């Protein structure tokens, strides 16, 4: 079978069905490659790893004829499976690896839904809202699950407090960022930001947190890394909130 080049395929004439999966996948991947957002100023894992994984997942979803909403639902379910592992599996131990992998898969699918929406021209306010709802629940729920896991394994009380504080921080920061985007004009574009900025932002990249879950194999390492991540995120969030407040204070009253 001769498979046409993706650049010669017309999306309206690409056949459907299982026998046509290869040309549809190649078409989707090619079009997605040409329609990526700028990565300047984006945290390193999200920029160079997660968006690439999301692109592959979006191409597969396009091949299967899935909707962006279905991909969002899959992202939520996979992330929920990771939460279930954390609150039920024996820890510390190798179950942490499974939880981390599931979280990273859910994160990739979280990138894929938006890419699929742009690819198929089905982006909508409802889809964006649903994506934000899932994001708003996922991180606080993860930290709450980690708090419960720490309680189950008799970790120090202060570590449970850190996890609960992290849940509050994640929720409040996400909400404040989202609201600020609605109340104020966009900030200066980071399109010219050098690559090193992405690495500076790596510590509070969501992917870093998901990778850190693997450290639950050995509790002392997890406690050190998780606490350091919380402290760093707290400092960055405080600076971000201060900047957003000053920016909004300069805006005229509604």
From TrEMBL:
GO terms for biological process: phospholipid biosynthetic process. The chain crosses the membrane at residues 60-87, 93-109, 155-175, 209-237. One of its GO terms (molecular function) is phosphotransferase activity, for other substituted phosphate groups. The keyword Transcription regulation does not apply. Keywords: Membrane, Transferase, Transmembrane, Transmembrane helix. It comes from the Bacteria. Belongs to the CDP-alcohol phosphatidyltransferase class-I family. It comes from Diaminobutyricimonas aerilata. This is Phosphatidylglycerophosphate synthase. GO terms for cellular component: membrane. The keyword Membrane applies. Gene3D superfamilies: 1.20.120.1760.
């Amino acid at each position: 079978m001769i498979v046409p080049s993706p650049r010669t395929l017309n999306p309206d004439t690409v056949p459907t069905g299982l026998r046509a999966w290869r040309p549809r996948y190649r078409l989707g991947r090619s079009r997605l490659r040409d329609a990526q957002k700028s990565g300047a100023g984006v945290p390193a894992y999200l920029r160079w790893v997660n968006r690439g994984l999301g692109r592959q997942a979006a191409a597969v979803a396009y091949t299967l004829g899935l909707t962006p909403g279905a991909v969002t639902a899959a992202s939520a379910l996979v992330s929920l499976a990771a939460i279930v592992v954390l609150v039920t599996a024996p820890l510390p131990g190798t179950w942490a690896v499974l939880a981390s992998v599931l979280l990273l898969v859910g994160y990739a699918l979280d990138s894929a839904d938006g890419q699929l929406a742009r690819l198929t021209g089905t982006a909508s306010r409802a889809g964006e809202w649903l994506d934000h709802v899932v994001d708003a629940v996922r991180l606080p729920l993860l930290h709450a699950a980690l708090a419960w896991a720490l309680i189950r394994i008799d970790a120090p009380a202060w570590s449970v407090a850190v996890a609960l504080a992290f849940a509050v921080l994640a929720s409040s920061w996400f909400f404040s960022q989202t609201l600020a985007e609605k109340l104020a004009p966009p900030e200066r574009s980071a399109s010219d930001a050098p690559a090193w900025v992405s690495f500076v932002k790596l510590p509070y990249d969501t992917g870093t947190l998901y990778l850190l879950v693997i450290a639950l194999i050995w509790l002392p390492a997890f406690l050190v890394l998780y606490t350091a991540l919380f402290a760093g995120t707290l400092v960055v969030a405080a600076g971000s909130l201060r900047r957003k407040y000053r920016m909004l204070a300069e805006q005229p009253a509604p």
